[in-house]
Specification:
Number of domains of chain A: 2
Distance between the termini of chain A: 22 Å
Oligomer: homodimer
Radius of gyration of chain A: 22 Å
Shape of chain A: elongated
CATH class of the largest domain in chain A: Alpha Beta
Strand order of the largest sheet of chain A: 3-2-1-4-5-6
Chain lengths: 302, 302
């Protein structure tokens, strides 16, 4: 059997890294999977589960052996990890291709350029739009990326072969790969993910501090529970994302606030036409989106 | 067998009215169920399904025979229906008790006082916090109110016996009954339901009008779908609710906007402590709420 990769190194073996290793082992993309990280317990567990073949606590060794390095650490830690990895990236042909999975791309690109002087040709940034309420290697799932989008943000400095290898890797894991600029990615994620989290957190916090908060939470039901589900997400992770994607998030908060102010005025003026038209437009958009989402999921072979 | 009611009239036989009739027939609360409304097809279907025993298109007849009248029409229509019903309400002992299910109570109370001069002693306003994405008598479900809250807003003018009859009716349908003032009810519902709908509609509409809306909806996934589910609700119904509960809704939009502006400033200033503390507080509140909601559902016998 020919593999696209001999030794694929997962840096940070949690839900995402573990699920990727499982998927790529099943698809035959890489011959061996090597874990690297600080938490030996996770790495031992990864070997026990058969997610990785072996692990090392020595980054030099991992980089020496790897032909692909996937940095699967949390958003803000990714830049810190690149400070250690990039100096070990030799600019030779055949050196490892490095990619990441962080939710924000601008800060990772800026960190890479600050560390290396230019965007390293072998560093291809990416972001799988997939996750789970569970975390850790125990929750890893080889089907996590099937039917999911992975956004790559190739840079003009990138080696095209490196970009194609990362694209092939995600396709091999069952994902749809989409290319965007870093700015497009960060704006899209601000709109679809970071802003909704901010809105959900803000709503729950506002209601919790209201005089009638006891009555509010006593009478809230299933619809409220669903709407605020994302407010149960990890506060440290979302603090980091909010800061990492500050500029795009501020823009999307401002756009939202403008629209909310407009709708507030329609309520104030009892402008029933504008209320109906806004709600109707939103309903149509949302219904079309869910139809497309369902088709996307059904049309993909798993 | 002794019944609390001989003839219970459902005005507007849809999901709520049909489900109430089913529940009260199963619990033996009323001997007979009579439907009244404009749409004969729904009423015929109600008889066919065994939800009601008979129906009439003559409101005089319905009012003459009823000992309880439950107005189950949509929010804004409730006030219009009371214009027809209240003049037929004779102030004699033994005249029917009238109640409703509208999502907003202030406008219904104001309409009743305008029609009748004072709040009629036999008119007890209420609101079951229950619903379904489905509608119509075909979707009616005798368990719809089990484990759900019903808020009654008794008035000082109300006959205490009328209030107790309505309370007994909802308890007989399996609901928890909570009393509030009209103002408390409308503020709580603005916070837990009307504001979230406005936020979801506003978010989807704002994103739909963005330059990058195609990328946005292509990359949005399951979390976004869940967060915006309520933006697929009926636009006409929510236009009516927004106008009916204008004052409380404007207040809750303002409280939300203040909190959002504060969080925006924390992002702008990269105030990581405030971001973390806000997200953490919201997560704790939301986690406690879902635990309580789950307990409430589990602890109730059905």
């Amino acid at each position: 059997m020919t593999y696209a990769s001999d030794n694929l190194v997962i840096v940070g073996l949690g839900l995402i890294g573990g699920s990727l290793a499982r998927a790529l082992r099943a698809s035959g993309f890489s011959q061996r999977f090597i874990g690297y990280g600080y938490r030996e317990a996770s790495l031992l567990r990864g070997v026990e589960l058969g997610v990785i073949d072996e692990f090392t606590l020595d980054l030099d060794e991992a980089m020496e052996r790897a032909d692909i390095v996937v940095v699967c650490t949390p958003t803000l830690t990714t830049a810190q990890m690149l400070e250690k990895i990039l100096p070990l990236l030799r600019a030779r042909t055949g050196g490892p291709v490095v990619t990441d999975v962080a939710s924000v791309k601008g800060n990772v690109r800026n960190a890479a350029i600050e560390i290396a002087g230019v965007m390293p040709p072998q560093l291809v940034l990416g972001h799988p739009i997939a996750g789970s309420e569970r975390s850790g290697v125990n929750a890893s799932d080889g089907d996590l990326f099937v039917n999911h989008q992975v956004i790559l943000t190739p840079d003009v400095e990138n080696d095209p072969a490196a970009v194609e290898l990362v694209r092939a890797m995600w396709r091999s894991a069952g994902a749809d790969v989409v290319d965007m600029t870093v700015e497009e990615h960060d704006a899209v994620l601000a709109s679809t993910s970071h802003l909704p989290h901010v809105l959900a957190y803000t709503l729950v916090d506002a209601l919790a501090s209201a005089d009638n908060s006891e009555d509010i939470f006593r009478c809230a039901a299933g619809g409220f529970r669903d709407f605020t589900r994302i407010a149960s997400s990890d506060p440290a992770m979302w603090r980091d994302i909010a800061v990492a994607n500050k500029s795009a998030l501020l823009d999307s908060i401002d756009v939202f606030s403008d629209h909310l102010a407009r709708l507030r005025k329609a309520v104030q003026d009892e402008n029933t036409d504008e209320l109906f038209n806004t709600f109707e437009r939103a309903k149509q958009t949302r219904d079309e989106f869910t139809t497309l989402l369902a088709q996307r999921i059904q049309s993909k072979p798993s």
